[in-house]
Design a protein that fits this description.
Layout lengths: L4 H6 L13 H16 L2 H11 L9 H7 L16 H15 L4 H9 L5 H4 L62 H10 L8 H9 L3 H4 L10 H14 L1
Length: 242
């Protein structure tokens, strides 16, 4: 049902990215994405895989990891200035519990989907942890926040292959074949995928892995990389995000 115009105007607006920042929060967010777009290269992402996928940084319980998020404020979020990320974790879990009471694994997914941000607590730069994600090794989509101008200074711009539509990938190769910007999404997915006692279903793992891939699931770009499996699994991202 469509809301009356006056009620539409009253709805809160989220994910507004200002090219000309008017507040310290807006300036922080813009700087975060300019850093991400400049420094996240193919080689950088591969170096992060080597650094983090040895899984040798800590051994702790899930709830202990959740509590570490009380030390983290997401610098990429234009809607949160000082709130620790642990608040978002419990809010998402509660929203999942209310919307899908018959699917307890989804409640758990909501609680843990951002736990990869613990990398920042352990000293990683936030442009390699938080924010929207996209594939490197191919031309960036126009819908990426702050636009193509924000990629100035990225050395991959000088590689003619990386600046083509498909880049280093094949058409309909599947999202799992893409080298995504390094982030909490990929880290948490890999932690769970390699954990011997992880029992949450593949639907949850997929949603965790791609929930920050806004150019794909919200702007519907990069569709030329998706395959039938991705089309089937997309609904799981929407359940987690919306």
């Amino acid at each position: 049902m469509k809301l009356p115009v006056e009620k539409e105007l009253q709805q809160p607006q989220f994910r507004i990215y200002e090219n000309i920042p008017k507040t310290q929060l807006q300036a922080r967010v813009k700087q975060h994405y300019y850093n991400q777009h400049k420094f996240q290269t193919v080689d950088f992402v591969k170096s992060m895989h080597k650094k983090w996928l040895a899984f040798n940084h800590a051994k702790l319980s899930l709830l202990d990891c959740v509590h570490l998020l009380s030390q983290l404020v997401d610098e990429s979020d234009p809607d949160v200035e000082n709130d620790a990320n642990i608040i978002h974790a419990y809010q998402t879990a509660e929203r999942m519990r209310e919307a899908y009471p018959e699917r307890p694994w989804l409640h758990l997914t909501g609680l843990i989907h951002d736990l990869g941000k613990v990398m920042s607590v352990w000293g990683e730069v936030q442009y390699a942890v938080t924010g929207d994600t996209y594939p490197v090794g191919c031309a960036p989509a126009k819908s990426i926040v702050y636009g193509l101008k924000s990629f100035e200074g990225n050395p991959n711009l000088n590689d003619p292959v990386y600046q083509t539509k498909f880049g280093i990938y094949n058409k309909n190769c599947g999202l799992d074949k893409l080298l995504m910007t390094w982030s909490h999404d990929e880290y948490m997915y890999q932690v769970l995928k390699h954990h011997p006692t992880c029992t949450i279903p593949e639907e949850a793992l997929y949603a965790i892995r791609f929930h920050s891939f806004y150019p794909y699931h919200s702007s519907r770009e990069y569709l030329y990389f998706e395959n039938e499996y991705d089309r089937k699994m997309l609904k799981n991202i929407y359940e987690l995000k919306f």
